[in-house]
Amino acid sequence: MVNAQTASLENIMLQGRQSIPPDADALIFPGNTTDLTKREAGMVRTFWEEQSGGLFILLDPAADTPNLNSILRENGVLPNRDRVLTVRSIPGLGYSKIYHAPVTIMPGFGPNRDLPVMALQLMDRTQSLEILSGDELYLSRNIRPYPLMLADQSFWGETEFGAEEVSFNPDYDNGQPDPVYTAAAIEKSPQQAGDSRRETSRLVVVGNPNLISPDGNTQKTASDFCMASLNWIMNRDELLGIAPKQPASYNLFIASATFGLLQ
Questions:
Q1: What is this structure's pTM?
Q2: CB atoms closer than 10 angstroms to residue 16
Q3: DSSP strand E in the chain: where?
Q4: Which of 46, 47, 59, 165 has the fewest CB atoms within 10 Å, measured from its CB?
């Protein structure tokens, strides 16, 4: 998927490094189950803020990653301690919690600029994101966070997700009627007019680690969103909305008489 967009993907271990390799354009965190150390988080901040490196973060709701989350919180996106779900009564099975959340990709912003309105399903567990769009503190620092994915209205961010039976509580839970966002983008421009950087620092975060399927069964809509996000965080705006073309082979049957005519 990445190779189709003239980019190469390599594994990198931050442990023991003093800095991010200078030829890296973006870092991908594919559902980290362990947190960054404070030193590693500092390296990532330097890469993003000073080198205009892109960040693509898939959060694992079950992982405790305060140092990774702090990078998001400092820039206007707050991962909530909840699970996006709904409840349904299924005949023969009784009451059931549904975690596979249908979401809408919101067009018009960042990597979604040239994408149409699309829907996909986030599989397994997802956490919601609080996005401080329009907050004067962040705007004064040239930081612009905005939502990219919106969960179906029947779903909410449940904070007591471990309980056997759950229902929406407006005092603790997120959503209903407020929107439940599951992905966000952050764009940070240079603060100084004479800053030598010509590119903005860009970040995309999704509150679900399964957006990209490790077994190669990634949904087409999810694939288009991921490729647009990767191009956007690398400041390759000219490639936004261009999905990678997958090679395919076809068998063409030609009758012997027709084949002779071709010869």
A1: 0.83
A2: 6
A3: 26-30, 54-58, 77-79, 83-90, 94-98, 101-105, 118-122, 129-131, 143-151, 156-158, 181-188, 201-206
A4: 165
CB atoms < 10 A from the CB of 205, how many?
Answer: 27
- Cα separations (Å) of 165 from 65, 90, 94? 27, 14, 11
**Residue 159 to residue 113: CA distance in whole angstroms:** 32
Supply 37's token pair.
Answer: 């150390």
Q: Is 193 exposed, middle or buried (0-12, 13-18, 19+ CB in 10 A)?
A: exposed
Tally Cβ neighbours within 10 Å of residue 56: 23
Residue 186 DSSP symbol: E
Give tens-digit pLDDT for 175-214.
988 999 999 999 998 766 555 445 789 999 999 999 987 7
- Tell me how far apart the alpha carbons of residues 12 and 71 are, in angstroms, rounded to a whole number: 19
Q: Nearest-CA neighbor of 106 among 192, 184, 42, 169?
A: 184
- C-alpha to C-alpha distance for 204 and 229, rounded to whole angstroms: 7
Looking at residue 252, the DSSP 8-state letter turns out to be -
130 phi, psi to nearest 5 deg: -90, 125
Residue 122 near residue 210, CB atoms below 8 Å? yes
SS3 69: helix
Asked if 151 and 101 touch (Cβ cutoff 8 Å), the reply is yes
